[in-house]
């Protein structure tokens, strides 16, 4: 498919994981993709917490390409813990990257999209932004903020030609997830987390990228303000083993 032929897409967190998969999928569908990350191997090495750097990058993209059709905000970090055990600096780090960084990118993307009269933004949130998890605190709060930011922007900019949605992934096999599940003593947690997904597996970054490409494309032209859950059934409900007792 070439649903995005001739368009310009910006992907944050484009060096690895979901961001890299989104960049590849959008490119495969015909978009010219511009990537941001704090790591090398992308078009703009920058920290989304740095508003001046974000603004400068968007200005440079407009000079080079004359348009910005879509943005996928995939830059993010993991972190948290029970609130009474959480250092304030760690709280700030997670909120500043995941929520404030998304705000910076959305703000400067929207400024150019409003001027041109169109645009589509997809923010990567999490199922942990729509339901709690133990020890999630800062991460859950940051991703809940991303969900509400997306909905608020959809309200504010719908009549100006901008669509804003977010994706709430479940457990996706990325370096971020593996940094938790592969650490010492976490094997049992890894298996329990995998089993909480009704499909019995973690998702692949390409499966989130497919959802992002859909939301960006004209196939989703009547969708805005939506939080699309892509979680292998994690949030569908509780499995207690009853079906096994019935021979299934």
TrEMBL record:
Note the InterPro entries from the entry.
Answer: NAD(P)-bd_dom_sf, Sc_DH/Rdtase_CS, SDR_fam
The record's keywords, sorted A to Z, are:
Oxidoreductase
Checking CDD domains in the record gives:
SDR_c
Secreted keyword on record: no
Q: Which GO terms describe its molecular function?
A: oxidoreductase activity
- TM spans, by residue? none
Q: Which Pfam families match?
A: adh_short_C2
As for family, the record states:
Belongs to the short-chain dehydrogenases/reductases (SDR) family.
Question: What is the name of the protein in this document?
Answer: Unannotated protein
Please name the source species.
freshwater metagenome
Q: What is the lineage of its organism?
A: unclassified sequences, metagenomes, ecological metagenomes
């Amino acid at each position: 498919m070439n649903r995005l032929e001739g368009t310009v897409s910006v992907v944050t967190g484009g060096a690895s994981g979901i961001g890299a998969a989104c960049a590849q999928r959008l490119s495969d569908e015909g978009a010219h993709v511009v990537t941001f990350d704090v790591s090398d191997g992308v078009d703009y090495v920058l920290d989304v917490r740095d508003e001046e750097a974000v603004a400068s990058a968007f200005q440079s993209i407009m000079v080079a390409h004359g348009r910005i059709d879509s943005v996928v905000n995939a830059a993010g970090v993991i972190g948290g813990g029970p609130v009474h055990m959480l250092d304030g600096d760690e709280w700030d780090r997670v909120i500043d990257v995941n929520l404030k960084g998304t705000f910076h990118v959305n703000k400067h993307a929207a400024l150019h999209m409003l001027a041109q009269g169109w645009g589509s933004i997809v923010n990567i949130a999490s199922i942990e932004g729509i339901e709690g998890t133990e020890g999630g605190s800062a991460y859950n709060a940051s991703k809940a903020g991303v969900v509400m930011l997306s909905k608020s922007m959809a309200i504010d900019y719908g009549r100006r030609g901008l669509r804003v949605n977010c994706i709430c992934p479940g457990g996706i096999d990325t370096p971020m997830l593996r940094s938790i599940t592969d650490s010492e003593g976490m094997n049992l947690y890894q298996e329990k987390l995998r089993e909480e997904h009704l499909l019995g597996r973690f998702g692949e970054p390409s499966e989130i990228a497919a959802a992002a490409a859909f939301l960006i494309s004209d196939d989703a032209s009547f969708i805005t303000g939506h939080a699309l859950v892509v979680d292998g059934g994690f949030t569908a409900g509780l499995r207690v083993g009853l079906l096994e007792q019935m021979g299934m």
